[in-house]
Amino acid sequence: MLGQSEFNLLIDPRAESKVFQGITTEVTGEGNSIAPLNDYIAKENQPFLTHYKVTLDWHTLGEYFDRFERSRSAINLATYVGATQVRQYVLHDENRPPTAAELDQMRQLVAHAMEEGAVGVSTSLVYAPAFYAWTEELIELAKVASRYGGVYATHMRNESNSEMQAIDEAIRIGREAHIPVEIFHLKVAGKQNWGKMTEVIRKIEQARASGVDITADQYPYVAGATSLGASVPPWAHEGGTAALIGRLKDPGTR
Questions:
Q1: Which of 56, 60, 203, 248 is the one with CA 20 to 30 A from 40?
Q2: Residue 236's beta-bridge partner residues?
Q3: What pTM was computed for the model?
Q4: How far apart are CA 63 and CA 116, in angstroms?
């Protein structure tokens, strides 16, 4: 249900690490997505793009798919439109709710992506700047995806000590937006939480019994990993990568 190869398939379209496992279709877009793009997001991605010699010649999902087809990828690709992506497009990395006009612009970006082939809207709520999003904001974006028959897919806001509350948020979004919910890579993180998966599954099954179309997937292996930035408090990320690095360079803040 989730891969990360939206850029990789442009760098090496052979996709041998997928094909040798028998994977012929990948679904990508975890909070961030390949589109929509503007100059602010492009600048944030520039170190990666420069290193791998990727030229950004798209701004919309439709334009990316045109580029993807020209790359002659060995596998098929589907993608969500990221709630993080549209938030960063409009609000950059600011820690605040959107204004009514900004939220309307975010809705329009989701609608455009859905019209160009996105399969739903996604979140990755443990990462910057995704964790600045309010639940009500996500409900509004999910309502747009719902109108197009999409799903709401989520790396939840917490997968450890506050996981039950995070599941409640996902359930609420599904219920109020009238949209199917998919929980990415379901887990219970932290040794103090080991053994709680039974409770997690029970909560999901209770939501299904109450009428919420909610499902989950999990890793096919026993370990997990993520970026170091996910361990840095949300306030330290405000303003983007350059601001974060500036704070880390200050001994007192670090």
A1: 248
A2: none
A3: 0.94
A4: 9
